[in-house]
Amino acid sequence: MSTSSECSYSYEDYKETADWLLANTDIRPKVAIICGSGLGGLADLLDNKKVFPYHKIPRFPQSTVQGHKGQLVFGELNGKQCVCMQGRFHFYEGYNIATVTYPVRVFFLLGIETLIVTNAAGGLNSKFKMGDIMLIKDHINMPGFAGQNPLCGRNEERFGVRFPCMSDAYDRDFARMARETAQELGCDSFLQEGVYCMLAGPCYETIAECRVLQILGADAVGMSTVPEVVVARHCGMRVFGLSLITNKVVTDYNSTEKANHEEVLGTTRMRTEDLQKLVSNLVAKIKGHRKSERKPRGHAGINHLYPFLEQGIH
Ligand code: HPA
Fold it and tell me: Taking burial as the number of CB atoms within 10 A of a residue's CB, which of 68, 173, 186, 241 is the most buried?
């Protein structure tokens, strides 16, 4: 499987998938939720479900992880129509970065306006505790630093502009609403806010790497989410993200602690209900997204005036 960052899909590929889904369900959600590892239970809460296993959806990437559900679940969460990805595609599984983000462009063509992302992450911030839920305020795209950005390659203007802005990646109004909702639900004692850093994985970080990430200003580290957010912002979706802090990373050479998958899964199980409650209450509060905001966004105007920007002479 190639891991080249060159986009290997055409607009027509995404369109074929979206049109097939639109033809096979009457549900027209405006909200999509990408469920992180162990957090897929959220999709089970949907009412009036219509479930599409990934392997039944034309051109949709296939799940490689045995025992993981790979399906799109359409339905109603707390009375609001939405679609959930139960099982995401991770870069560390060997997927091309364009494949990791394929569903997000399909969501755009389905008419999705708001993308909610959840993940499990290691806590880098010394104030964070296991089981905390972190509102993602911003991200560090470490694979992007190394050339693995899903927007590399020819730009498809029907999705968005060549040079999209990322300084407003995570919706601040939505984050305010999440803080209020957490307070209403009594979840505010374990609600945090911070910067999520994505590493490719699959190995957990060394002590030196964790120290570097702390110096860089990251509060949590994980192996997902950022490529999907970049693609969602490119096509003008509003994004909201939550990280469940499943473990504290090790930053002390005298420590005998070791990051491990069992601990990650254990914390996820412990907090999954709170996270589901928070997301479903938030979803119920989402109002329509202004149409003008959902257009491909960024510096479109400038690109028309300076066509050389489009050619990459920058
Ligand atoms: N590091 C990277 N990814 C993770 C971690 C971690 O400590 N915990 C959960 N996902």
Answer: 241
Separation of 309 CA from ligand 1 center, angstroms? 37
Pocket of ligand 1 contains residue 264 by CB under 6 Å: yes
Q: Which two tokens stand for residue 311?
A: 């050619």
Global model pTM greater than 0.90: no
- Gap between the Cα atoms of 184 and 234, Å rounded: 33
Spell out the domains of the chain, with CATH numbers in brackets.
Answer: 11-309 (3.40.50.1580)
- Atom 2 in ligand 1: residue holding the nearest Cα: 222
| Pocket mutation for ligand 1, best pick of 37, 223, 248 (most atoms within 8 Å of C-beta) | 223
Quick: pLDDT tens for 269-299. 888 889 999 999 999 998 865 444 455 544 4
Tokens 């510096």 found at: 299
Sign of CA dihedral 5, 8, 11, 16: negative
Give the per-residue pLDDT at 291: 46
Closest listed residue to residue 294, CA positions, set 236, 240, 238, 233: 236
pLDDT of 38-87, one tens digit each? 788 889 999 999 999 999 999 999 877 655 679 999 999 999 999 999 99
